[in-house]
Write a structure and sequence with these properties.
Length: 170
């Protein structure tokens, strides 16, 4: 798409919408993490070097960690954190806050979408990511929610996407 950088962003579900919840040891979660990693690798092989993550719990973490693993093998990979508001992780369990901070510290860029929380800040973050990408990797189960809204926006903006079912099916 003209005018957009060759950038890949991500949208996906939080733990509450995943069949295994927070249990990342579940074999279905392991399969999904591998599918995300494979999609990130395929994006890299297609020329993508810059990746944007919305920094939410669950699938966003899996995506960011897959990009960081790719960066260990390829120094030309960059990861951008698209942060909807400064206190995004404020109410999360401490382990998730720690994971968020570790990922954030490893990012090459941070974009703060707005300087305070508002009901629309997550959607603004999602639109920022789509508006700055030519590919979106999505973990999507077909149900209504933020991931669906993001994909619908990407389709309207003619941004290509890779859809991964949460239980690992493509």
């Amino acid at each position: 798409m003209r005018g957009r950088p060759i950038t890949c962003c991500f949208t996906g579900h939080r733990p509450g919408k995943l069949p295994w919840g927070y249990n990342e040891a579940d074999s279905r979660c392991q399969v999904l993490k591998q599918k995300i990693s494979d999609a990130v690798d395929a994006a890299y092989q297609s020329g993508y070097r810059h990746f944007i993550c919305g920094m939410a719990q669950g699938c966003d973490f899996y995506f960011a960690e897959a990009v960081l693993a790719l960066r260990r093998a390829h120094a030309d990979v960059t990861l951008e954190a698209a942060i909807p508001c400064p206190k995004q992780a404020g109410g999360w369990p401490q382990l998730d806050q720690d994971r968020y901070q570790a990922i954030l510290a490893a990012c090459d860029f941070e974009t703060l979408v707005q300087d305070h929380y508002s009901p629309g800040c997550m959607q603004r973050r999602n639109r920022y990511m789509v508006d700055h990408s030519t590919l979106i990797i999505a973990v999507y189960d077909g149900l209504p929610g933020g991931t669906r809204q993001t994909l619908e926006y990407a389709i309207r903006q003619q941004v290509d996407f890779v859809d991964i079912h949460p239980e690992g099916r493509l």
